[in-house]
Amino acid sequence: MNCQRVQDSFLDYQDGTLPADAAAQLRAHLTSCPACQREWSALQEITRKLDTLGGAPEPSPRLREQFYAMLETHQREADAPSPFVLARGRIDRFFAALLPAAPTLQFALSLALLLGGLFAGQRFLAKPPVAAPVDNSAKVELAALKAQMDSMGQLVTYSLLQQQSTSDRMKTVLATMDLKTPDRKVLTDLVGSLAFDPSINVRLSAVEALSQHADDSLVRAGVLSALPRENAPLVQVAMIELLAGAREQAAQPVFEKLSRDENLDRNVRDAARRALAVLRLPAQPAGNPTANLKPNPTPTLT
Q1: What is d(CA 32, CA 122) in angstroms, rounded to the nearest whole number?
Q2: Which is nearest to 186 in space by CA: 152, 144, 219?
Q3: Which of 29, 89, 135, 262 would suit a FRET pair with 58, their CA atoms being 20 to 30 Å apart?
Q4: How many Å apart are CA 194 and CA 176, to the nearest integer?
Q5: pLDDT tens per residue, range 205-254
Q6: Distance separating alpha carbons of residues 266 and 216, to the nearest angstrom
């Protein structure tokens, strides 16, 4: 095995997903290659530091059962007969008995209805339209539907993540960094990786990929919605700096809450305070808006 293939297989080897023969070749190569030994040692050091921060909570073991139970419930509701089928049949029978059976009479009746409609329209068209009252119950139903769809999207994301290895998900995220103008699906998938992927490395890479497109409102909204649920300090600091660099004013309440939370890592609180200071400054017409957002030179891992 050459050095590039060995280093590409580090993540699979670390996760225990590398085949036995490939793992044996990797170990044999490490015993004789100082360059790969240094890369492996650096990866282990990063992993050790990240492990001290704590990972994202694992999904419940019953998540798959709940997901399929929800799908079965929706399928039963979709297959259930419509309550309007019986009423529609009665209406059809009523009009069938009311209207004449002869085609000539049907045409004459249709023509009479058309002329009557034209006459009524000309006479009453000048009346101002009456505004329909706002139906608050419809708004409540739409909000409930949106919450249900968000929950379904989270379940689907977790289900997909369980079917891929960490290295595959990392390669998928890294591949998007070379895209200058990604489509909406690519950006949505990156936001989903940032919000739901259990690997800190994948979430950090997702932030880096999204930072190239921080001028997109979808990116800023996705990062802002994922920030409150993130609990890894390295990822939190990266997300705060992205939003501050984009001067996302909607993030001020979140930054204020993070800056006052004594249970958070000190670097996260400091980053939130610096971000608040950036957002409160007047907008700069030129230059780098992140100039005032200076991270600590040597962050302390706590």
Answers
A1: 94
A2: 219
A3: 262
A4: 13
A5: 999 999 989 888 888 998 998 999 899 999 999 999 999 999 999 999 99
A6: 30
Query: For 37, which DSSP code?
Result: H
48 within 8 A of 78, measured Cβ to Cβ: no
Rounded to an integer, what distance in angstroms lies between the CA atom of residue 114 and that of residue 202? 65
**pLDDT tens digits for 29-73?**
888 898 888 888 888 888 887 777 655 556 666 777 777 788 778
Q: Which two tokens stand for residue 254?
A: 């979140």
CA angle 117, 118, 121 (to 5 degrees): 85
Question: Is residue 143 within a helix (H) or strand (E), and if so which, with residue range?
Answer: helix 136-161
What is the CB neighbour count within 10 angstroms for residue 253?
Answer: 9
As given in the structure block, the two tokens for residue 129 are 């339209």
Q: Looking up tokens 């002329």, which residue turns up?
A: 115
* Cβ(244)–Cβ(290) below 8 Å: yes
Residue with tokens 């070379």: 178
**How far is 83 from 155, CA to CA, in rounded Å?**
30
What angle do helix axes 184-196 and 166-175 make, rounded to 10 degrees?
140
CA dihedral 282, 287, 293, 297 (to 10 degrees): -160
- Is-contact 202 173, C-beta < 8 A? yes
Please choose, from the candidates 287, 284, 233, 282, the residue with its C-alpha nearest in 3D space to the C-alpha of residue 258: 233
